[in-house]
Specification:
The protein is mostly helical. The protein is 74% helix and 0% strand. The longest helix has 40 residues.
């Protein structure tokens, strides 16, 4: 197992390099000169040339690429062009809010999606099945950013039930730990609900099809013939056998969830990687964009690796060699 994990980690390195290279190339293809990002009309030409030498912007593009790549490998993410601070100091505080938002949404999404998918499978061909499938189709057709805006319009502006944006209120810092956590939870409701609903359709349909396939197995048909209640057959035996496809879906859903989180953070002004990346793009702060993109890609690679490891633990036959230890 240890060798398998190491091989998967090594296999992710070319993907991360390709993503980093793509962001570097796009950053140099957009209109405008890279050195203009570090300068302003108020400084002298001598100071501008000095800054170009400091940041290596007077070098050929291949030299800039090589130097930046080697610096990234060493963990040196350079300075932000818009804030003048180390990129690591800007990115690090944004990781926690993104992980909290995406992790909570993932938990709620899969819990609710598996439950609704199980109910649809339990009532296959009936009104409840058609209603849940119709709901999944509607949710699948709604863009995540539009859903977020709709949430703000209804629950914040129209009904005034929930705060429309940000991570917490200014007054929460004086409310103690419990008050602060409650305030953060209230601010999480709308972005978590938006992310959950945006990806719920895929989980519902996948859970329903997996459970229907499991329920068609001969051993479950025999248990049904012995008089075992349908709900017990489904939740006690069906879910256990359908867990592998759901874990696979978990790994596949992670990239979509993180990309959706980036959009949701912009809509709700959530201080995570999405909001940080959006502000960096507007400011043409390419060091921050590169670092945020690389970090997001790393989380996707590690998330897929975790899903593969979970599958191999749940079913030893899927491990390299195909046998349990």
């Amino acid at each position: 197992m240890g060798g398998y994990i190491v091989r998967r980690l090594l296999a992710g390195i070319p993907l991360l390099w390709l993503i980093w290279t793509l962001v570097f190339v796009v950053g140099h293809l957009v209109p405008g000169r890279s050195e203009d990002l570090y300068t302003s009309p108020q400084i002298s030409r001598q100071d501008q040339e000095r800054l170009n030498r400091v940041y290596g912007l007077d070098r050929p593009i291949i030299v800039q690429y090589t130097r930046q790549l080697l610096a990234t490998v060493r963990g040196d993410l350079a300075l932000s062009t818009s804030r003048g601070r180390p990129v690591a100091e800007i990115i690090a505080p944004a990781v926690g809010p993104t992980l909290v938002l995406a992790g909570t949404a993932l938990l709620v999404q899969f819990t609710l999606g598996i439950l609704l998918g199980a109910l649809a499978a339990l009532r296959q061909g009936r009104v409840l099945d058609h209603a849940i499938s119709g709901l999944a189709l509607v949710l699948y057709s709604i863009p995540v950013f539009w859903l977020g805006i709709l949430m703000v319009l209804i629950f914040s502006l129209r009904l005034a039930w929930l705060p429309p944006s940000h991570y917490s209120s200014l007054s929460a810092s004086t409310a103690g730990l419990s008050g602060h956590l409650f305030d953060v939870g209230i601010h999480m409701v709308l972005p978590v609900a938006t992310l959950t609903l945006a990806g719920l359709a895929v989980v519902i349909r996948h859970a329903r099809s997996s459970l229907l396939e499991v329920l068609a197995h001969e051993n479950l048909k025999a248990a049904r013939a012995r008089g075992l209640p349908e709900w017990r057959l489904l939740f006690r035996h069906g879910l256990r056998q359908a867990i592998l496809p759901l874990i696979t879906l978990l790994g596949l859903a992670l990239p979509a969830l993180l990309s959706g989180a980036l959009l949701v953070e912009v809509v709700f002004s959530w201080p995570g990687l999405g909001q940080t990346t959006y502000q960096a793009i507007l400011a043409r702060d390419y060091p921050v964009v590169q670092a945020a993109t690389l970090l997001t890609a790393t989380m996707v690679v590690l998330g897929n690796l975790a899903a593969d490891v979970a599958i191999s633990v749940a079913d030893p036959r899927t491990r390299p060699g195909g046998t349990a230890p």
